[in-house]
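User: Predict DHH family phosphoesterase's structure from this.
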Amino acid sequence: MTTRLVLGCGSFGYSLYEDLGGYPGELLVVTDDESRVEALREESIPATLGDCADPETVAAAVAEDDRPVESVIVAGTDAAVNRRATTAAREVYPDAMVLAYVPIEADEEMSDAIERLADRVVRPEAAVTERIIEPTRQDGLRIRQLRRVLREVEGTLAVVMHDNPDPDAIASAVALSAIAETAGCDAEAIYYGDITHQENLALVNLLEFDLVNLDPDDDLSGYGGFALVDHSRPGVNDQLPPDTNVDIVIDHHPPREPVEARFVDLRSDVGATSTLLVDYLRRLGVRPSTAVATGLLYGIRVDTKNFSREVVADDFEAAAYLLPYVDDATLERVESPSVSVDIIETIGRAIRNRRVEGPVLTSCVGRLRSRDALAQAADRLLDMEGISTTLVYGIQEGTIYASARTRGADLDVGETLREAFSQIGEAGGHADMAGAQIPLGLLGSVEEDSDEELREIIEDVINDRFFETLRARPHWSATELFDDGVEGLGLPVGTGTSDDE
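Assistant:
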C-alpha cells in the first residue's frame, strides 16, 4: 500500500484531509502543532508531532512500516518552513510527487525557490477559487455523493447485475465493487440467471472475476445495501424483490419510469455503463487492476460494437485511459472462444424458421437452452442481404425471450419493442438493439400444446404485434414497404420446421 505524506498543517492542509482520506493508500501527517495532532488522531488520521522540515523526522514518519511514499504535500502556513519542508521532501523521497503550498506572504524569491523544488505548487488565490468552484460542478458533486453513500452502507453492498449479465454489466459490477472497497465498504458482485454466452464465460473465467450467482429464493438479509449496474429498477430484468431499497443505480439505458435510489447516475449519452465506471475510477484516483481494466475495455467494445454503435467521445477517452492497464493476450482469448453446439443449433433454427417482410426478418427458434444464443442469432441474421432489422425469439422456463437488432434504418427498435410488448411483458433497449421478456402464461394454456403448435401460436402473437407496431410508425411507409412482399428482394419466406426439444 502506498503512502501520502502531508508536511505541515495549516488551514489549507487541514481542508484537504477529508478529500485525501477517500483515496486509496495510507495518509500520514507530520506537524509541530500539538492541537492539530490531537484533532487529527481523533479523526483516525495518523499524525506525528515533530519538525516537518527536518529530513530525519520526515524519513522516520513512515520508516517503521517501510511503505513507498507516492506523494508529499507541503501544507504549512509559514513560507520559510514550507521551503525547508519541500527541500526535505525532495531529499528523502526523490521519486515522490511533491505538491507545495505557497503562502500569500511569500516574497518572489521564496515563491520561486519553492516552485523550483516542487512538482506543482498551489497559491492561495487559485486554491480558494478552485475550492469554491469544484464542489459546484456536476462531476464533483456526483463523485462526492457516490463516495458518501458507499461510506454509509452498513454491511456488505450487493452490486447487482441484470439477469444473465453481459460483459458491460459484469465489468461494471466488478469495477464498482473495487471502488466500494476503497471507501471501506465490502462489496459482492451478484447476478441471477446464467452466464452461458461463450465470450462472457471466457471473460469471467480468464480474468478470474469473483461473482456470486443467486437463486430467486436466496436470503438477502445479509446484505447491508444494494447497487444496480447496467439496469435501473429492482425486479425488472433481475430477480430482486421489486420493493428492494436501492442505494446506488448506475446505467446508460434510458429509463421507462422514474428511478429511486440514494445515488442515481443515468447517462444515456454514452455507449456503455463501463464508460461511467471508468469516469469514477479516474476522478477518485483509483488505478484499475489488470483484470478490471481488461473487463471494462471489453464491456465498452461489446456495447458499442467495437466503437461503431452509439459511441461518443467519452467512450473513446475511457478506452484510451484503460489501454495501459489491459492484458492484451487475455483480451484476445476472451474475444475468440470456442462456440458451443447449442449456439450453432439455435442460429441454424433461426435461419430455417425465418420470416421476411421487406427488410425485416423475424424468427422463432422454439425452446432455448441458452438465451445468449438469441442475441447472437439476431446479429448473424442482420448480415443477410437486404435485411436491416431482425427479431429472434424463443421459449425458456415459461417465458418468451426476444432479441432485436437494426442498422441503417430510420427505426428505434428499443421503442418499437416497448410499444409492441410492454402491455404483455417487459421490453426496451437502445435504438439499434433491444430485447423483450413475455410470460408465456399470458397466452393461455399454450404450454400444454405440442412444440409445433406452441411455436405457431407464439409466432402469430409476436409477429402480429411487432409488424403492427412497425406499420403504425409515422416514418415507415408501411404500404410501400410490405405490400410488395419479399419477391422484390429475392429472399424466400422461411417455412421450415423447428428442431425444438
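The two ends are 55 Å apart (CA to CA).
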